[in-house]
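Incident log entry.

Two folding requests arrived from the same account within the same minute. Monitoring flagged them as a possible duplicate submission, but the sequences differ. Recording both here for audit purposes.

Request one:
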Amino acid sequence: MSYHENRNLVNMAAAILVPAVYFYSRLNNVALSSMESAELLKFWGKQMMIYILVAIGIRIAIEILYAIVYSAITKESVPKTDERDKMIELKSKNVSQVIFIFGIIGGMGALALEMSVTMFFVSFLVGGVLAELVENTIQLVYYKRGF
């Protein structure tokens, strides 16, 4: 497998593991059902801000470690990004943005149906994870197929 294919597989694993581990560790002993709406908004706002910072840091570290491990194993440098790579990334990002928007719309629909604020944020997170998984899957298909 090429560098880009392997990188997409690593990104897919990170897209699932990072939010799963973070939110499992943060929500393990929290009673969300007993909180009022104002408390839930404050709680989720803080959790999302912390998660964004943590996820960015972890994902950067994963990218750096992957490049180092790839170079050490294959004894070659990380390939440069060319026009083909940029086109593949652009096409996959377009699809993933639509999926993410559907996650946000689903969350707003949950609020419109007077569901808990938690449902909005869960929908937001699930939409983000699914968008990233679809983005990386599309990139894998394009790299395998030979765009």
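Request two (distinct sequence, not a duplicate):
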Amino acid sequence: MGLRSLVLTQGGFDHDIFIPVAPEAVLALLSRPQEWIRLQPLVIAIDEEPRAPGMLRITDRHTIGGLTFQARYRAQVVPVAGGLDGHAWSFPFIHVLNRYRWHAQDGGTLLRETTTIEAPRPLLGFTVKTARAAHASLLANVKQALVERSGAR
């Protein structure tokens, strides 16, 4: 067992939301990373990595006890059957895996996000708490944006 496995631990959360639009509309919105700037409350910038096709550099803004700072990390979104997988890698040794899965249900889409976070033990609580709140807002904002575009209720 290496030192890394001794100091890293895992946590996570799930979110479910019903959106009264077709699954294709959900996929189209979540597949456009530049949309995340207005949908995810922490994200303030997204840049493509010129030397690594498919990789992104994302900048988040965090506030802890009145201190505001930016965190920049690498991310990748991978289409999979029935959804998208999003990976984010941040200093120090933080890996976030977001699995978005959806299926048609009662005239709309049931969207489930399952998030697993691996981080150093002292950072896991803050990382999970911050991500859980940001991703709850993300899903609510996705729903609001899609409902407004479609005119659904």
